[in-house]
Design brief:
Blueprint: H1 2-16, E1 20-23, E2 28-31, H2 33-44, H3 46-50, H4 58-99, H5 106-116, H6 120-135, H7 144-152, H8 159-179, H9 185-211
Antiparallel strand pairs: 1-2
Helix pairs in contact: 1-4, 2-4, 4-5, 4-7, 6-8, 7-8
């Protein structure tokens, strides 16, 4: 659910910018005639572009590629911002109820906890990147949308991953220590970790490629 919701955040922004979209299990494709024209120019003058040599309509190409890069930043932000917006909305309501000592039904409380856990995507991505960097990826510790956003903004590549992952970790820690009842904490932690890993495997490796290849 979280992954598909995240992808629809990308789609919403892409549609607003005038792109057609194709949804896949862990990504979207976005295109229109403008982008296709830029890609054709790149294919035609690949050598000149990659070696920073002059070619016909170079200035026009540079302007167009800058627009594509800006659109890509906004589209990438769309998915991340939708995810953290949902998580923040749930968490803010929980905070309000907690500090105002407002009694609520168990169903509503756990529903708000579930929404707050949309922030767990940022935590999962951060630690997945660290583990990949240490064991599998030759020192590349960051990945995904967060890496793309940092690169587009000209920041250190881990800037967005570290910030969003830290915020998510703080929110989840607060949920565990302050919101989740003591008798459920160990179960909550265990099921959260197990659910994240098994959910990733089930959707990203098994079901996702079959349902939305």
């Amino acid at each position: 659910m979280g992954t598909i919701t995240h992808e629809y955040g990308h789609i919403a922004v892409a549609k607003c910018l005038g792109y057609q979209n194709t949804l896949h299990y862990a990504s979207i494709e976005w295109s229109n005639d403008f982008k296709s024209d830029v890609l054709k120019t790149y294919d035609r003058y690949r050598f000149e572009i990659e070696n920073n040599l002059p070619f016909k309509q170079k200035n026009e190409y540079v302007i167009k590629i800058q627009k594509i890069n800006t659109d890509e930043l906004f589209i990438t932000l769309g998915g991340v911002l939708l995810t953290v917006f949902i998580g923040t909305a749930g968490f803010v309501i929980l905070l309000f109820q907690y500090y105002k000592a407002i009694n609520t039904t168990s169903f509503m409380k756990w529903g708000l906890i579930f929404l707050s856990l949309f922030w767990s995507r940022e935590v999962f991505n951060f630690f997945k990147g660290i583990i990949n960097g240490i064991f599998f990826n030759k020192g590349n510790y960051f990945w995904g949308d967060e890496l793309k956003i940092s690169n587009h903004l000209g920041c250190y590549e881990g800037t967005f991953s570290i910030i969003s992952g830290s915020i998510g970790l703080c929110i989840i820690s607060f949920l565990i220590l302050k919101i989740v009842p003591l008798k459920y904490r160990l179960t909550f932690i265990f099921s959260g970790v197990l659910g994240s890993i098994s959910g990733y495997i089930m959707w990203m490796i098994i079901l996702g490629p079959m349902i939305l290849p």
